[in-house]
Amino acid sequence: MSIKSTVDFNTHWGDTESNKRLANSEKGQGFHEAEIENSLKAMALRFERSPSPSTIKLWASDLAELGYKCDLVGQVCKTIPYKMDKHPTLNELMALIRPYLPKEAVSLDELTDLSNRCFDHLKAKFMAIGDQPALDNMVGNYVRLVVPDCEHFSIKNKELMVLCDWLRSYFKTTPQGIIDQGRISNDAFQRKDLEYFLNPLKRYAKENKL
């Protein structure tokens, strides 16, 4: 059935909500990005401290690129000031939106492929600010404090866990930032939330043409 036929069918039966959702799905990423930015700005006004306009713009771009629709983001943003005393981080915002997303099948094979494609690039990025002993030390602390059951994993897999949580933490410069992110990742693993693990890697791979 064509888009026009679907709209005509919905109109005949008075289904305006379906037509509205259909119209939004047909609009491009630029439209959703602009509307998401407006919703984020409106939410920011409710908090004493909030991200800068340039940061909000980047967040809107990230959310739109990951496929988050403006209507859904707008609805969630309206409820956040009633749930949180402080303005959420981008990770916290995505965690609040994620339960309302349509469930999509996420392939473990895709996650493995993305992890392997990003590994060398992430490690090189880490080495630009540190060295192998620093990474070895980080891996040791991470395994001990976050995933003690993974002591038997290969060195590469241990490094991969650390580097991916470094990515998910938006490249925190302190070891504690990576440890804290690792604990969040443990919770996501228990929920079997594959999108949590997939989306940052997908974005990183696209940004770096991997």
Word description of this protein:
- With 210 residues, the protein is mainly α.
- It is built from eleven helices and no strands.
- The chain folds into two domains: 3-100, no CATH class; 108-207, no CATH class.
What descriptors fit this protein?
disordered N terminus, globular, mainly alpha, 2 domains
Number of E-state strands: 0
How many angstroms separate the termini? Answer: 37 Å
- For the residues shown, what is the average pLDDT? 82
Strand content: under 5%
- Count of domains: 2
**Radius of gyration, whole Å:** 20 Å
Largest beta-sheet characterization = none
Uncertain residue ranges: 1-7
Shape: globular
Alpha-beta content class: mainly alpha
Protein topology:
Layout: H1 3-12, H2 16-26, H3 29-44, H4 53-65, H5 70-83, H6 90-97, H7 108-127, H8 132-145, H9 155-168, H10 175-190, H11 194-207
Helix pairs in contact: 1-2, 3-4, 3-5, 7-9, 7-11, 8-9, 8-10, 9-10
Summarize the structure.
The chain is an all-alpha fold and 210 residues long.
